[in-house]
Structures are given as C-alpha cells and as structure tokens.
Specification:
Layout: H1 7-25, H2 36-45, H3 47-62, H4 68-85, H5 91-94, H6 107-113, E1 117-120, H7 122-129, E2 136-140, H8 146-160, E3 166-171, H9 183-194, H10 199-214, E4 217-221, H11 234-237, H12 239-245, E5 250-254, H13 255-262, H14 274-277, E6 286-291, H15 304-311, E7 322-327
Parallel strand pairs: 1-7, 2-3, 2-5, 3-4, 5-6
Antiparallel strand pairs: 6-7
C-alpha cells in the first residue's frame, strides 16, 4: 500500500517544481542566485566557528594517526557529528545562526548532544567506512555556508585517514531552496577561505581547491536533484545518476530535504524500517545525516516517539534532534 502524502508534502512538491520550471525557461537568470549574498553573509557571520573547527582539523592533519582502531575511530566519530550538527545551519529555518559553541570545535558539547541523536547507526557506518581504503565516498549536499564547511572537514578527514580514496560532492544545478549548495557556492567559499587572514582557514581553502584540480574532490551536478520525484524513482528516470551512485562505497545524504525524498515524504508510521521506507532505493550503502525539521521520520523503536514527544512537543521540526540512519543493500 502506498501511503498518502501530507498537505505539507504536497506544498513542498509545488515549491520544488516552480523554481525548476522558472529557471529552465529563463534566458537571463539561469546563473542568477537570489540567495547568493545571504549565503556568503551566513558563512562570514560564522567565521569564529569555522576557524575553531578549521584549527581542530589542522591539528588532526598534523598528527600521526597510528592507532587505526582507537584514535582514528574517535576522530571519525567527532568529524561525523560536526557534519551532522552542521545541518542546523539552514537559512530557511535559522537565518544562518547557530547557538554558542555548537560548531566551535567543542568535542565535549558533542558528547552532551549524543542523547539528542534519536537514531544512531554510527557503528554501522564505521563498519563500512573503515574498510573502504582507496574507494569512493559520496556526499549529496544540503546547505551551503557553515554546513558545507563541516561536510568538507569530514571529507578531508576521510581522505587524510585513508578511509576514502576520493570524495564526490553532489550539488544543485540551479538555485533552489534558500541555502542549498551549488558548485558556485562551494568554489566561492573556498576562494573566500583562501583569502582569509586566519592561516589555518586559508591553508584549507588552498588545499581543497588543489584537491578539486587533482581529482580527489569531485564536484558533480544533475538535474534530478531539483526534480519533484522522490529517490525511489531515480533508477527509472535518471538511471545514469543511479548507476553513478552505485560506484560509491557509501553515500552520505545531508539534511531534511534529502531525507524527505529518500522516504517519499509520506506518512510512514515512525517504527517503519528505514529500508522499507526507501521503497527500493539502495544504489549503495547510504547514511542520512539530518537534524529534524519536518514531519517525517522512520526507524524508531516502539514507543520512542511518545517518549520524545513528552520531552518536546515540536521534536520533529525544531532541529534539536538528529539522526545518523544507515541502510545497506542485501548482499547476494
């Protein structure tokens, strides 16, 4: 049985269709981003958080990672969680603001946030990633600005720790929702970092631009990411993209919109298994990193939703709860 979409889901579909139609027929505005200045400003306003995380990453890059099962695993947990909570920086929700200390390299703060991760499949993700070696890892991006910066930091750690051979970043082809990341946004941020007065931030900007030139960072775009169809339809209407994703050892899907399209934005019972809600979409092992900002969630334990509801009535939309949710194709 196909579950119905909520009113909000239909509203979101209309919101995704209109920008695509308008930009596809425009002769003068296909490269115009009405949110460009907002995106740039949001990253500038979070410079202290970015510098703090950058310096933490630079210290990591300077260190010798010898204990693969200990130190590398601990750092993997930390950078994945920075990548996760960076998703709170969504211009459409928070005007680019984050709470004090949220993204500022506070590993103790991450530990305190652990109980807000209501689905935590981190160990399952690690069990795949630590075996990757020289293989490919993909990121289907969400927001530009500080969240994109945390994505890049996590990706850099994966390469440095030899947990990935190259990273593919999937961006939007056109300006879409307010803060969605495009190739232009990514390159613009790296140039901004390169010219920063902070030495570490500047070094990372230069390092990442070089990775793009050398091919260890690959930026990709596809029109499917701004179509109204959910991801279960990708194989039939964008088979080239589906086949491309299948080359990855693991694919990280960032943020709320990607999660809604993974599960069809439907009224699933909260205990529905994640793999069932994916409706057949599993080109490769995938992990959703998302802070909850919309009324859809699967993969909870029986009664877990009622318990969270008692703690916070707006738990599904506040951005205060998060998931690290993993699914893997069944091996023949």
């Amino acid at each position: 049985m196909i579950l119905p979409r909520s009113y909000l889901a239909w509203q979101r579909i209309i919101q995704t269709i209109l920008p695509t139609i308008i930009f596809s027929f425009s002769k003068l505005h296909q490269n115009f981003d009405p949110f460009e200045e907002q995106k740039k400003t949001s990253f500038i306003e979070l410079q202290n958080s970015a510098i703090s995380l950058a310096e933490f990453l630079c210290q990591t890059l300077d260190a010798t990672l010898v204990d693969h099962k200990g130190n590398v695993k601990t750092l993997f947990d930390v950078f994945l969680q920075f990548c996760l909570w960076g998703n709170r920086c969504d211009l459409s929700i928070s005007s680019g603001e984050i709470q004090a200390g949220q993204g500022a390299g506070q590993t103790d703060h991450l530990q305190r946030m652990k109980d807000k991760i209501i689905v935590d499949n981190l160990e399952d993700v690690w069990s795949v990633v630590h075996k990757i070696g020289n293989e490919r890892v993909d990121f289907v991006l969400d927001n530009s600005g500080f969240e994109l910066f945390t994505d890049l930091c996590f990706a850099e750690f994966l390469l440095h720790a030899k947990l990935a051979g190259n990273i593919h970043f999937h961006t939007k082809q056109i300006p879409w929702f307010v803060s969605d990341a495009s190739k232009k946004d990514l390159l613009s941020m790296l140039e901004e970092m390169k010219s920063s007065s902070n030495e570490c931030l500047s070094q990372l900007g230069e390092r990442w631009l070089k990775r793009i030139q050398e091919g260890s960072f690959v930026i990709q775009s596809h029109k499917f990411w701004t179509l109204a169809q959910d991801y279960s339809e990708m194989k039939s209407i964008a088979s080239d993209l589906y086949q491309d994703l299948s080359q990855a050892k693991v694919v990280f899907f960032k943020g709320d919109l990607n999660y809604r399209k993974l599960v069809g934005d439907r009224k699933w019972p909260h205990t529905t298994p994640f793999t069932e809600a994916l409706w057949g979409f599993l080109p490769a092992p995938l992990c959703s990193l998302r802070t909850l900002k919309a009324d859809v969630q699967v993969g909870l334990l029986p009664g877990q939703d009622n318990k969270i509801q008692a703690e916070s009535k707006d738990w599904m939309t506040s951005g205060n709860y998060a998931i690290i949710q993993y699914a893997c194709p069944i091996q023949a």
